[in-house]
Amino acid sequence: MRPWDSFESALRAIVANKLRSFLTMLGVVIGVGSVIAMIGIGEGTKKKSIENLEIMGSNLLTVFPNWRRGGMSMGSDAGMTLRDSDVEMLKREVPLIKNITGTVRQGVMAKHGNKTHSTSVFGALPIVKDIRNLNKMLEGGWYTDEDEVFSAQKAVIGYQVWQELYDGNNAVGTNIRLKNQNFEVVGVVDFKGGSGMWNPDDQIYIPLSTAKTRLMGKTNLDMIQIQATHTDLMILTQGQVEDTLMKTRGSAMGEPLFRVMNQGEAIEQIETQTRLLSILLAGIASVSLLVGGIGIMNIMLVSVTERTREIGLRKAIGAKRGSILSQFLLESVVMCLVGGVLGIALGWTSVIAISKALQVPPEVHTPAIITAFGFSAMVGIFFGLYPAMRASRLQPMVALRSE
User: Fold this and answer.
1) CB contact at 8 A, 103 and 225
2) Computed over its alpha carbons, how large is the radius of gyration of the chain?
3) 350: left (phi > 0), else alpha (psi -120 to 50), else beta?
4) pLDDT digit string (tens) for 7-58?
5) Residue pair 212/219 in contact by the 8 Å Cβ criterion
6) FRET pair for 1, CA 20 to 30 Å: which of 87, 260, 293, 366?
7) Using one digit for the tens of pLDDT, what is the confidence trace for 90-123?
8) Which positions ≥6 away from 275 have C-beta within 8 Å?
9) CA quadruple 253, 259, 264, 267: dihedral sign
10) In the chain, where are the structural domains located?
11) If you write DSSP's letter for every residue of 86-137 in order, what string do you get?
């Protein structure tokens, strides 16, 4: 029997039992779809997380007080071991620092007219626009070094704050109220697309001196933000920052009362963690493919039993063992391949739907599709081989006598 004849015969056998064939393929459909969906969602989540970090720049270092080692409660000014003198010392002693600012942060209810919006105020030097990549303005500009010196009540608002308080109307030159104090809006930062508590679109930026003395009543800093001269020098810069701060911010036990977050390392950690998670999820989803393969083997064994007389008749009129084997093996492979195609469609649709619900970019990777589809073909060969061999080994006289 020619290969095409074997293939045609296999298709006829599958179509003859449509419902049984579909139910048999269902395990493969779910398995392939799950593998593609899990990898796609994992890659989309990774991309979104990395984008959120890269919004603030990949050469950003952030120094936080280490409350646990300092023995202080988070949020108390006494526990904040970072000071303006640390910023000045880092400026002098770490040549790899391009820009630096101390910062303070506090949640507030901002008000303009009859509209209110819960957001956070970020007190920092004007250079923060370069450090956090906030130079692109929708309107207006940034407060100046002079505003910092005189503790001026000026504010730059993020895109989301502008939308909530101004409904798209002009904001520059108007006032917003923060803790019953008026601040003049001098600029609106263009849309950045971040999310979470560090979302740059949902921030109000004011001069550091104003934030400390007039709005928050803080004497120390919540954090120090540093822009390194080059992304490739991040680890070296981090080491120099840590060594310098240990001179004044080390505990009596020799432990640092601060911690440094390296934006580049954070991106690498996210990539590593999501890669491992994607592999884990894909491995779990692959179990469905194995279960589907077992189902195919079971059905093919039933099919061999049901068609024993047919096999005997074909052998009696001259069908070779290889023809019988190829026909049953092709039936198994075709069911898996059709299931694989349906699984790809299911996985693709699932990625788009779940990504929209989770608000992450849909990522359907071609290697994941090829791998899942190839695996489904291997499942068809592996689990279809034994039933096919069993069918090809039947003796004609024994098969013809079966009921």
Assistant:
1) yes
2) 33
3) alpha
4) 666 677 677 777 777 877 887 888 788 878 877 877 777 777 666 665 666 6
5) yes
6) 293
7) 999 999 999 999 999 999 999 998 999 999 999 9
8) 42, 46
9) positive
10) 3-52+268-401, 67-256
11) HHHHHHHH-TTEEEEEEEEEEEEEEEETTEEEEEEEEEE-TTHHHHTT---E
| Bridge partners, 221 (sequence order) | 82
Tokens 């740059």 belong to which residue? 200
Burial annotation 108-121 (CB, 10 A radius, 16+ → b, else e):
bebbbeeeebebbb
- Cα–Cα distances (Å) from 310 to 154, 297, 313, 325, 344, in that order, read 89, 19, 5, 14, 35
Mean pLDDT for the chain overall: 79
Overall pTM > 0.90: no
Six token digits for residue 61: 């270092």
* Beta bridge partners of residue 279, listed in sequence order: none
First to last CA, the chain: 26
